[in-house]
């Protein structure tokens, strides 16, 4: 049983954090588009970013900042313009954003981290952003987590947030998180934007290690469409305001904190996968029997990312052959005679051979129909065993619908 509970407040649930979100006018839709997360004291900062060679100015800015000083007070995120592929002027816009906010908050610019989301190739509308900064800072609140979550989304249907609380040394320790993501979602970190706050005291190197491990078990295990974004960022702040002793090694308290951080990231990752553009269901793939966890995760990601598997699920077609084919091309060695596949509770394949599950015969037709009906559930579970090894892995995704093509065909037009 998990040693924590869900609480209200998302990113402002941890002590010493405030947040805000406003409609500055960066989006033509008139929806909220500028968010701020603020720590009342200096916080340890960690980040994991896109692996794309085409990166937004905010990504390079944050990487450089965290290498120099793994501490921060604030995260500023604009929606509407990605500020990617914008050259030197895009870089200057990012620097200017930090400077303007720093002046308003009366802190150093190197204590500010940045994130952007929106259309690639478009610079931030700096005149609008600068005008909105005073209003944004004035709106900072200990209950501002929900408005911040709404202000970072683009094609998302719903905002995504969570907060958990545990006890360390008899004192409450909290972690909160928000995320956005619906399209351009594919493993390679971070495949979206996510911001995490924590009031535990933890060493710089350990916090970064925890975040990397949590990302590998969550955001790096989701895929919607096979496209990694230019702006992918996962940023986490830990300000120590719980007043517990500093966690500097992976002892009992360190393991508990990392487990809770991973739970927050997995919740947000699954929320992103469920909210995939045009999606009708969340798909979870569980793989066991691999030589190690890395192999299991690789197979799971390949299956959940298969366009053929995703299309079959949308069509409510229990096509186990597509699942077997995806597992076989994952780049992981296993004996096909060991392959076992289940859709929910429906056993489709065992010992590398299909079970009598075709459309010939009344009883088999009923099984086929029942398995097809299962694919109409809000969450579809695919279980795959590839051998007798101890490696396990999970990945999350969604089905591929007609609406995905429609949404992306009209994204900039």
UniProtKB/TrEMBL annotation:
Gene Ontology annotations for the cellular component aspect, listed alphabetically: cytoplasm
GO molecular-function term, one example from the UniProt record: L-glutamate N-acetyltransferase activity
Binding site for substrate: 154, 180, 191, 277, 408, 413
Entry EC no(s): 2.3.1.35, 2.3.1.1
Catalytic reaction list: N(2)-acetyl-L-ornithine + L-glutamate = N-acetyl-L-glutamate + L-ornithine; L-glutamate + acetyl-CoA = N-acetyl-L-glutamate + CoA + H(+)
GO biological process, one term: ornithine biosynthetic process
Subcellular location: Cytoplasm
EC class of the enzyme, as a word: transferase
Active site: residue positions: 191 (nucleophile)
Site feature Involved in the stabilization of negative charge on the oxyanion by the formation of the oxyanion hole, where: 117-118
Key words of the record: Acyltransferase, Amino-acid biosynthesis, Arginine biosynthesis, Autocatalytic cleavage, Cytoplasm, Multifunctional enzyme, Transferase
InterPro entries: Arg_biosynth_ArgJ, ArgJ-like_dom_sf, ArgJ_beta_C
Annotated metabolic or biological route of this protein: Amino-acid biosynthesis; L-arginine biosynthesis; L-ornithine and N-acetyl-L-glutamate from L-glutamate and N(2)-acetyl-L-ornithine (cyclic): step 1/1; Amino-acid biosynthesis; L-arginine biosynthesis; N(2)-acetyl-L-ornithine from L-glutamate: step 1/4
Superkingdom to which the source organism belongs: Bacteria
UniProt site positions, description: Cleavage: 190-191
The keyword Oxidoreductase is annotated on this UniProt entry: no
Subunit structure: Heterotetramer of two alpha and two beta chains.
HAMAP family hit by this protein: ArgJ
Family: Belongs to the ArgJ family.
Role: Catalyzes two activities which are involved in the cyclic version of arginine biosynthesis: the synthesis of N-acetylglutamate from glutamate and acetyl-CoA as the acetyl donor, and of ornithine by transacetylation between N(2)-acetylornithine and glutamate.
Record-given protein name: Arginine biosynthesis bifunctional protein ArgJ
Native source species: Aphanothece hegewaldii CCALA 016
Organism ancestry: Bacteria, Bacillati, Cyanobacteriota, Cyanophyceae, Oscillatoriophycideae
Encoding gene, per UniProt annotation: argJ
């Amino acid at each position: 049983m998990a040693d924590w509970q869900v609480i209200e407040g998302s990113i402002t649930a941890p002590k010493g954090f405030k947040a805000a979100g406003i409609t500055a006018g960066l989006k033509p839709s008139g929806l909220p588009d500028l968010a701020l997360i603020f720590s009342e004291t200096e916080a340890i900062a960690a980040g994991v970013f896109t692996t794309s060679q085409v990166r937004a100015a905010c990504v390079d800015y944050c990487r450089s900042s965290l290498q120099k000083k793994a501490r921060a007070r604030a995260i500023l995120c604009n929606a509407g313009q990605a500020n990617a592929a914008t050259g030197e002027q895009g870089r200057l816009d990012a620097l200017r954003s930090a400077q303007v906010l720093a002046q308003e908050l009366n802190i150093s610019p190197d204590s500010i981290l940045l994130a952007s989301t929106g259309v690639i190739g478009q610079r931030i509308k700096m005149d609008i952003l600068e005008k909105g900064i005073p209003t944004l800072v004035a709106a900072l609140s200990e209950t501002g987590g929900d408005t911040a979550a709404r202000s970072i989304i683009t094609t998302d249907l719903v905002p995504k947030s969570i907060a958990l609380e545990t006890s360390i040394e008899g004192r409450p320790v909290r972690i909160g998180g928000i995320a956005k993501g619906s399209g351009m979602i594919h493993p390679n970190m971070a495949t979206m934007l996510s911001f995490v706050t924590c009031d535990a005291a933890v060493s710089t190197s350990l916090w970064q290690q925890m975040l990397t491990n949590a990302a590998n078990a969550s955001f790096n295990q989701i895929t919607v469409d096979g496209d990694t974004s230019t702006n992918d960022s996962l940023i986490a702040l830990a300000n120590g305001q719980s007043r517990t002793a500093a966690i500097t090694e992976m002892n009992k308290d360190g393991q508990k904190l990392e487990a809770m951080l991973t739970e927050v990231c997995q919740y947000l990752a699954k929320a992103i996968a469920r909210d995939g553009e045009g999606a009708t269901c969340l798909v979870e793939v569980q793989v066991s029997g691999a030589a190690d966890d890395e192999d299991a995760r690789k197979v799971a990601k390949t299956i959940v990312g298969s366009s053929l598997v995703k299309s079959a699920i949308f069509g409510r077609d229990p096509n186990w052959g597509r699942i077997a084919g995806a597992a076989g091309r994952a780049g992981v060695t296993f004996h096909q005679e060991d392959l076992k596949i289940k859709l929910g509770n429906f056993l489709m394949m065992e010992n590398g051979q299909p079970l009598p599950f075709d459309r010939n015969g009344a009883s088999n037709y009923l099984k086929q129909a029942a398995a097809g009906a299962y694919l109409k559930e809000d969450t579809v579970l695919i279980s795959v065993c590839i051998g007798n090894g101890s490696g396990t892995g999970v990945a999350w995704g969604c089905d591929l619908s007609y609406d995905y093509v429609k949404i992306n065909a009209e994204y900039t037009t």
